[in-house]
Amino acid sequence: MRQVFCIILLPVLLFTFGCGGKQSSPVKDEGGTAAVKEKSEALATDSFKYSLRSEHGTCDVFIDYPVSGPHEVVAALKAFVKSTLFEDGGETQSDDPQDLVRAYCADRQAHLAKTLKQMGISQVSRDNAPEEGIEIRKVCQTSRFITFEVYRYSYITHGAHGEYSEYGATFRIRDGHRFGNDLIEKMDETLYAHILSGMREYFKVSSNEQVQSVCTVDLREMPLPTFPPYLVHNGVRYHYSIYDICPFDMGDPVVTIPYSVALPYMTKEGREMVGDVSTPKQ
């Protein structure tokens, strides 16, 4: 499992930019006059990080955010980031990433203050202060698709442990389509056997019976994760949430099925997305 966010004493804002504007090149039209033809703009992201601490606790946010690229995918990614950050969907929020990370922390600080008041807690110690945090990170990008993973963490003081969730989302670059269960055409015993193999590796055991012994559901039912599978550099990833198949203390099993195994089970659209996965962009 991932580490808890560190408490940062002072607000810190880090913004980095590394993308140029649109490129154009002069060409000759049929009449011999000079014309300008716009080249398609590559999808690019930059990272934005903000941390805020108050008497109510600590808030951290990190996002990889689209800063240039085809309109449809940029719009889809912006909507995805905002809807992930804000419980109300973020439709009224600015598209400016600087505003978004600040607004997220302000929103979560207000939530922490309300929660503490409902619990009748007027003051928290530094060592037992609440924490809220989220990361939205780009984990894979090719010329055809881009994938993000989301990690969210929440700890309310005096609780037994914090709560967290992690999942991924893959978008098609040419039109911004977000893939879900439409990546995989079918699930049968052969494909599920590979998922069980990944579970054995995750739990560090040698048999399916040992996997079953630490799970709270019947694995013969071929349970799927709460969130759909998504594409990464080396295969199709199934990320089970906490409580999907096992207790909290056993974590959130992550299984990646190599493309050499997964391709026959993928939809036509899914296979098209992985056509150039052998040459990914970092």
Structure explained in plain terms:
The protein has 282 residues and is an alpha+beta fold. 24% of the residues lie in helices and 30% in strands. The protein is built from six helices and twelve strands. The chain has helices at 71-85, 97-118, 189-203, 208-213, 259-262, 268-273, and strands at 12-15, 24-28, 34-38, 44-54, 57-68, 131-141, 145-155, 163-172, 178-179, 230-232, 235-239, 254-258. The protein has a seven-stranded mixed beta sheet. It has a three-stranded antiparallel beta sheet with strand order 10-11-12. Strands 2-3 form a two-stranded antiparallel ribbon. The longest helix has 22 residues, at 97-118. The chain is flat and about 55 Å long.
Q: Topology, please?
A:
Blueprint: E1 12-15, E2 24-28, E3 34-38, E4 44-54, E5 57-68, H1 71-85, H2 97-118, E6 131-141, E7 145-155, E8 163-172, E9 178-179, H3 189-203, H4 208-213, E10 230-232, E11 235-239, E12 254-258, H5 259-262, H6 268-273
Parallel strand pairs: 5-6
Antiparallel strand pairs: 1-4, 2-3, 4-5, 6-7, 7-8, 8-9, 10-11, 11-12
Key attributes of the depicted protein:
single chain, 282 residues, alpha+beta, seven-stranded mixed sheet, 6 helices, 24% helix
Summarize the structure.
By secondary structure, this protein is α+β, with helices and mostly antiparallel strands. The chain has helices at residues 71-85, 97-118, 189-203, 208-213, 259-262, 268-273, and strands at 12-15, 24-28, 34-38, 44-54, 57-68, 131-141, 145-155, 163-172, 178-179, 230-232, 235-239, 254-258.
